[in-house]
Amino acid sequence: MPAADLLHFEEARPMLLGLAYCILGSQADAEDVAQDTFLKWQAADREAIDTPHAWLTTACTRRCLDLLGNTHRARVDYVGAWLPEPIPTAAVSDAERSMQLADSLSTAFLLLLERLSPKERAAYLLHEIFDTSYAEIAAMLELKEPACRKLVSRARSNLQATEQRHAPPRERQQALLEAFRLAITEGATARLANLLSAEVRLSADGGGKVPTLLEPLHGQTAVLGFLAGRLSQYWADYQWREADINGGCGFMMHREGNVVATVTFSYDLAGQATDIFIVRNPDKLARLTL
């Protein structure tokens, strides 16, 4: 492959990975999609392609939509709560920052996207996050431009009432991390209680492969009792490491050099934690390194 054609793909690769991850909620699947897109690019008549970036984005989007149907069917049989695969975001590329991608990687936002149809999700992300024109989206999705506008409008309306992309100052997030750690390691929950919403929810994803909660816990009493009681016992031999995960401050829990859990949070406009997300599924942790 000529160096110029390879450069086109490498320049687009961070965006393709980000788009695929946002659509699919899986870094492993996103990397597979990027590889599939590269193979198609390699086999294409590149001299006949006027806009490589648009071609690559189209190929990536269509492959994601193909996969979405399979992933939705697989989640029907998923054991317990399904959460997106956690990804470290301490070193988000300049290209990703320019498209405000880091703000759209939060677990809460990715879960909200699950409410949308596949084409709504793709159209919304392409237009709102990746600044793609309606004309380009119409070509990618093989729809008329007015239909794409309707897709984005419906998606925006669906997300607007419940969108949770607010990130409080890092100092506030750091205070929550310390209070969360104290609740589990020392059973001291008072500080954490002041930082949690009254209706806080705790969700855990074990995928049926490790013991964890099968249903989310709701409310401060249930959540604090679980953290200071059962989780304090289960995580007694875990080591703690603070990390930037999915665009916010969180924890990687590890044992014997292996990541065994991640913890992330979502917040309301007052900076109170509304959700605690714990991923324990080893398949979703395999790509994380300390």
Automatic annotation (TrEMBL):
* Annotated coiled-coil segments of the chain: none
List residues of the RNA polymerase sigma-70 region domain: 9-69
Top-rank taxon of the source lineage equals: Bacteria
Pfam families with a match to the protein in the record:
Sigma70_r2, Sigma70_r4_2
SUPFAM superfamilies per UniProt: NTF2-like (SSF54427), Sigma2 domain of RNA polymerase sigma factors (SSF88946), Sigma3 and sigma4 domains of RNA polymerase sigma factors (SSF88659)
Cite the RNA polymerase sigma factor 70 region 4 type domain residue spans from the record: 108-159
List the InterPro entries: ECF_Sigma-70_Domain (IPR052704), NTF2-like_dom_sf (IPR032710), RNA_pol_sigma-70_dom (IPR014284), RNA_pol_sigma70_r2 (IPR007627), RNA_pol_sigma70_r4_t2 (IPR013249), RNA_pol_sigma_r2 (IPR013325), RNA_pol_sigma_r3/r4-like (IPR013324), WH-like_DNA-bd_sf (IPR036388)
Q: How does it assemble?
A: Interacts transiently with the RNA polymerase catalytic core formed by RpoA, RpoB, RpoC and RpoZ (2 alpha, 1 beta, 1 beta' and 1 omega subunit) to form the RNA polymerase holoenzyme that can initiate transcription.
Name it. Answer: RNA polymerase sigma factor SigJ
Species whose genome carries this gene: Halomonas sulfidivorans
